[in-house]
Amino acid sequence: MDRVLQLPGLFAQMARARTVPELPVRPPTPPGREHGARWEVPSAAHKELGLWVRAAGYQQQTKPGLASDRRLGNYAAVYLVEGSGWFWSEPTGRVEVQAGSLWWIFPEVPHRYAPHRYWHERWVIFDGPVAERYERHGYLRPEKPVVDVGAHPQVQEIFTRFHDDFIHGHPLAVPLASALTHQLIVVVHGLATGQWGNRAPPDPLVAEVLSLIDREATQGLTPEALAERVHVGYSTLRRHFKRHTGYALKEYLLSVQLKRAKELLAFTERPIQTVAAQAGFADPYYFSRIFRAREGVSPSDFRARQSRMAGGLARHS
Q: What are phi and psi of 184, to 5 degrees?
């Protein structure tokens, strides 16, 4: 997977917390105002980060919205806090939306949306090559831009932070908002695919495959064997899994096996051959080659470095 996409791993870890407090959904609205926004001009340094936020805001609307097609030159996310209405884009046609719906807007893709009677929306506009990579890897999908995230506390917190950190403004507003956008993309993708948030995957085949990988990845499971187990052709399964999760099947299975190998290397003294077998690799030489290719160091070097970092952590034989 693209190395740039390894950065959001931090935000995915942040998103695993299950004790996020409920935060106020509606930002403070000054008397007589029904909208608020802040626009920024990202600096060259901000753009070097690969993803930057251009604007964020909120709007309470009772009149028709975009009556004619609009094309943005950027990406955007719109989260509907209250009310209901519809969203239209060229790839999707008209889709009904309600409180808890979030939709992505893509550069130069014609779209429009409006409330039936009233709604309260919160939005962010962002751009950059990392956003394009998220789209390429299936995290952002023009053919399925609308996601039902409900009143999920993590999504609510992100948009509240957009308001507090970006709209109010301070010197770190752009990089903080960019970090929040990474997190938003990962969280919404996880909710849409059932990979996070205690939701079952919406696709039963994907659910079965993820369950098998979770139980048997370290027992020598292969992508071809997975296809046989779920009674689907291998090529069909690869396409289906990629479309619904954003991951290549082989890449996802390999990542689970390598994560287990790294745990064993860091916290046990077991021989490399044993670590390879217990992580699901039948050939220790292949394991060493693939480990070096992915991590940049051999299993032995990884163990030596992590041993120093672990310090006083207990090690197990």
A: -60, -45
Q: What is the pLDDT of residue 200?
A: 55
Is the sign of the CA dihedral 278, 280, 286, 287 positive or negative?
Answer: negative
Q: Which residues of 202-236 are buried (b: 16+ CB within 10 A; e: fewer)?
A: ebebbebbbebbeebbbeebebeebbeeeebeeee
Strands 75-89 and 101-105: antiparallel
Tokens of 294: 């992915």
Up-side HSE of residue 307: CA atoms within 13 Å toward CB?
11
Return d(Cα 219, Cα 282) in angstroms, integer: 9
Tell me whether residue 93 is exposed, middle or buried, using C-beta atoms within 10 angstroms of its C-beta: 0 to 12, 13 to 18, 19 or more: exposed
Look at residue 51 and give its three-state secondary structure: coil
With a cut of 70, list the residues of the chain below it in pLDDT: 1-33, 63-67, 196-202, 307-317
Q: Measured between alpha carbons, how far is residue 95 from residues 57, 87, 89, 107 in Å?
A: 23, 5, 9, 19
Beta strand 101-105 with 35-39: parallel, antiparallel or unpaired? unpaired
What confidence tens digit (pLDDT) does each residue in 163-201 have? 887 777 777 888 899 999 999 999 999 888 877 655 555
Eight-class DSSP state of 169: -
Is the whole model's pTM more than 0.85, yes or no? no
Structural domains in the chain plus CATH codes: 3-193 (2.60.120.280), 204-310 (1.10.10.60)
Alpha carbons 166 and 162: distance in angstroms, whole number: 5
DSSP notation for 148-217:
E-TT-HHHHHHHHHIIIIIIS--TTHHHHHHHHHHHHHHHHHHHHHTSSSSPPPSSHHHHHHHHHHHHHG
Residue pair 161/132 in contact by the 8 Å Cβ criterion? no
The tokens of 227 are what?
A: 């296809």
